[in-house]
Design brief:
The protein has 281 residues and is of the alpha+beta class. It is built from six helices and 18 strands. Strand 4 and strand 5 form a beta hairpin.
Length: 281
C-alpha cells in the first residue's frame, strides 16, 4: 500500500447523536436510524436494533453480501441493505468512525438521493479525533472488465472520476461526467442526484421483492419517451451513478486515484473494491 504523509489527516466522527426516518426503497418498510459518535478506529458500523442482541456489522468490502440493485453488508444471517447513498455522504464529510443504529434490514430511500444525509450530518457536526487516518493512494493502475462494463483506477494526485453512462433508451442515451472530488461541489452537484428506474421494469422488480417502497417521491421514473418527474440536473442520471460509485468505493476508505467507469453498477464497483483491497494488503 502506498501511503503518502501529505494525505494523512485526523480521523473524524460526528459531535452529537441525530435521528432520521423514512421508507426503504426495496423493502417498503418504515425505518428509523440513529447516528452516534464512535471512538477512533471504530470504523463505520451498522447496528440492527430490531434483532435479538442487536448484532453489528462493519461497512467494509469483506462484509458485502449482495450487489443486486444496491449494496448490502451483513454477516451471521443478518444484513443491512442499500447503504451506498449514506456511504457517499460519509465520504463527503470524511467521517471514519460512526455507529448507525437501524431498526430494519434496509436504509430509508429518503428522496432517492443523499441530499438529506448531507443536511443531517451538518446538524450532527464533525469532530476531529486524536488519531490520524491514512489515505490510500493508487500506485499502479488496474481494472475490471465485464460483458458490457469497464471500471479501472489509475495513479493521480487527486480523487477523480470519469463516468460514461450509455443506455439504449431515447430518454437517457449517452451521458458523460468528469469530476474531481471536492466536498462542497459533491454536496451541491452530486448528492442531490436521485436514483432512477424504468416504468416497464416496475412489475418485474416487485415480483422479485424489490422496489416495494418506490414512488415518485424517492426515484426518477422513466417511461418509453419521457421522464415523469422533473429532473434536478439535465444529466441527473450519470450524476447519480457517480454518487453510487463514490459510496461503494468508500467501503475501502478514502482513496487518491483516477477512476474510469463505463456503464458500471454495484457489482462492477464491488469487483474493483475487491482488487483495491487486495492491492492494499
Amino acid at each position: 500500500m502506498n501511503i503518502l504523509a501529505e494525505y494523512d489527516r485526523q480521523q473524524r466522527t460526528i459531535k452529537q447523536e441525530v435521528t432520521l426516518e423514512g421508507i426503504g426503497l426495496h423493502s417498503g418498510n418504515d425505518v428509523q436510524m440513529n447516528f452516534l459518535p464512535a471512538a477512533v478506529d471504530s470504523g463505520i458500523v451498522f447496528k440492527r436494533v430490531d434483532l435479538d442482541q442487536s448484532p453489528q456489522v462493519k461497512a467494509n468490502v469483506a462484509n458485502v453480501v449482495s450487489t443486486d440493485r444496491s449494496t448490502t453488508v451483513g454477516k451471521s444471517g443478518f444484513k443491512v441493505q442499500t447503504i451506498e447513498h449514506l456511504m457517499a455522504a460519509l465520504r463527503a464529510f470524511d467521517i471514519d468512525n460512526i455507529l448507525i443504529e437501524v431498526n430494519s434490514e434496509e436504509l430509508p430511500a429518503l428522496d432517492g438521493s443523499a441530499k438529506l444525509y448531507s443536511q443531517l450530518l451538518k446538524e450532527a457536526g464533525i469532530e476531529r479525533q486524536s488519531k490520524k487516518k491514512k489515505v490510500y493512494k493508487v500506485k499502479r493502475g488496474y481494472y475490471y472488465k465485464g460483458q458490457d462494463t469497464y471500471i479501472g483506477i489509475f495513479p493521480a494526485e487527486k480523487y477523480k472520476i470519469n463516468y460514461l453512462l450509455k443506455y439504449d433508451h431515447p430518454v437517457i442515451g449517452t451521458e458523460y461526467f468528469e469530476y474531481e472530488f471536492e466536498k462542497e461541489s459533491f454536496i451541491n452537484e452530486i448528492m442531490p442526484a436521485r436514483t432512477f428506474g424504468f416504468a416497464k421494469e416496475v412489475a418485474m422488480l416487485k415480483e422479485r421483492g424489490l422496489a416495494l417502497g418506490g414512488s415518485l417521491d424517492n426515484a426518477v421514473l422513466i417511461e418509453d419517451n419521457n421522464v415523469v418527474n422533473e429532473l434536478r440536473f439535465k444529466d441527473e442520471f450519470v450524476r447519480h451513478k457517480v454518487l453510487d460509485l463514490v459510496g461503494d468505493l468508500y467501503l475501502n476508505g478514502p482513496l487518491i486515484g483516477e477512476i474510469i467507469a463505463i456503464r458500471t453498477g454495484h457489482t462492477d464497483n464491488y469487483k474493483l473494491n475487491q482488487m483495491i483491497q487486495k492491492k492494499k494488503k
